[in-house]
Design a protein that fits this description.
The chain is mainly α. 52% of the residues lie in helices and 3% in strands. It has 5 helices and 2 strands, in the order βααβααα. It has a two-stranded antiparallel sheet. The longest helix is centred in the last third of the chain and has 38 residues. The radius of gyration is 32 Å and the shape is rod-shaped.
């Protein structure tokens, strides 16, 4: 008995003729995902992304758009290069903006401490000079 149910499409099977195919550039415009990110998804998740053709002729059917959106949500917290875990490295130093701010504050505290010592020394010299004048 033959049924009219369509077989699930795999990444290697061509899309139905009536379904519109999109370039990565068109997908970027429709989804708001940057081109470098789409290219990374294409390379990393090629087994999950249904496509037709190869290389510059590679196109993605409309039903691939939700897959790109799903990949985006899966990778939402992973932006840029992976950061080194301060606890794992044992350095105890902060990374990123917090680390830079901490370094600036530490330097400012050192500068203020030197300034305080300098003022105390000069004030002490001034007091000694006044005592000599009496």
């Amino acid at each position: 008995m033959k049924t009219d149910m369509a077989e699930p499409q795999t990444p290697d099977q061509p899309a139905p003729a009536e379904e519109k195919l999109f370039t990565l550039s068109e997908i970027s415009q429709r989804t708001g995902i940057s081109m470098p990110t789409l290219q990374r998804y294409k390379k990393t998740y090629q087994d999950r992304l249904p496509s037709v053709g190869a290389g510059r002729k590679q196109r993605y059917p409309e039903h691939a758009l939700p897959v790109f959106a799903e990949l985006r949500s899966e990778n939402a917290g992973r932006r840029g290069r992976p950061r080194k875990n301060a606890a794992a490295t044992g350095s105890g130093r902060s990374s990123g903006v917090a680390g830079r701010l901490e370094a600036i504050l530490v330097q400012r505290v050192r500068d203020l401490e030197r300034f305080r010592q300098d003022v105390e020394k000069r004030f002490g010299d001034l007091v000694k000079g006044l005592q000599k004048l009496r």
